[in-house]
Amino acid sequence: MAGQSLRNLKVVVFIFLALASGWMVVQTEGRTCYKHNDAFIGSCTSTAACADFCITFEGWDDGFCSGDKCTCTKQCAKPMF
């Protein structure tokens, strides 16, 4: 009888911890916005050159090559709704 009660208690504690862990998750990252940069001249072959262009001339946070296009990125604010 005591063994059954201990097993039931373990199951209840496990379920509680599983549910409680979902409540403790905090989102720490914002949304990332992307913009294909049409001002970047030529085919994008260097992610470093694309990132430098996005940061220096466009005022964005970073950039990368996506296919042959330069894509700029930045952290966006979450929508307020």
From TrEMBL:
Q: Which terms are listed as keywords in the entry?
A: Antimicrobial, Fungicide, Signal
Listed InterPro entries: Knottins (IPR003614), Scorpion_toxin-like_sf (IPR036574)
**Organism expressing this protein natively:** Cucurbita moschata (Winter crookneck squash)
Q: What is this protein called?
A: Defensin Tk-AMP-D4-like
Q: Which Gene3D superfamilies match?
A: Knottin, scorpion toxin-like
May I ask which residue range the UniProt record assigns to the signal sequence?
1-30
Q: Does the keyword tRNA-binding apply?
A: no
Q: Which SMART domains does UniProt cross-reference here?
A: Knot1
Keyword Signal assigned: yes
Q: Domain Knottins-like: where?
A: 32-76
**GO biological process: one example:** defense response to fungus
